[in-house]
């Protein structure tokens, strides 16, 4: 079976996750996998999952976004209208920012937010 970067990265992630001792270990492994696939930034969130206790849920459990952006985002509770967060709630595949407007209709607030976030 030929191995592509995606399949090799996936198998590595699965193997590391099986050996993980903590949630942080799994999140770190996922981060390495995402970066290996060429994504320069990522945000892992468990927004709603009925199999996990509420204490394990949250937005930005593991992220590579800059601290100042994370503070801005949290202080203004941007998750309420962030189109990326809203899209990710029901979308399981990775997506690029350039695809967001094609995948979901955006309000003017969401368009402005994306422009600010892109900076």
Highlighted features:
globular, mainly alpha, 2 strands, 119 residues, 6 helices, single chain, two-stranded antiparallel ribbon
* Backbone structural class: mainly alpha
* Poorly predicted runs of 5 or more residues: none
Q: What helical percentage do the residues reach? A: 40-55%
Largest sheet: 2 strands, antiparallel
Mean pLDDT equals 85
Overview of this structure, please?
The protein is mainly α. It is 50% helix and 8% strand. It has six helices and two strands, in the order H-H-E-E-H-H-H-H. The protein has helices at 5-19, 23-36, 67-75, 83-88, 100-103, 108-118, and strands spanning 43-46, 58-63. Strands 1-2 form a two-stranded antiparallel sheet. Helix 1 (5-19) packs antiparallel against helix 2.
Secondary-structure map with pairings?
Elements: H1 5-19, H2 23-36, E1 43-46, E2 58-63, H3 67-75, H4 83-88, H5 100-103, H6 108-118
Antiparallel strand pairs: 1-2
Helix pairs in contact: 1-2
Short structural description:
The protein has 119 residues and is mainly alpha-helical. The protein has helices at 5-19, 23-36, 67-75, 83-88, 100-103, 108-118, and strands at residues 43-46, 58-63.
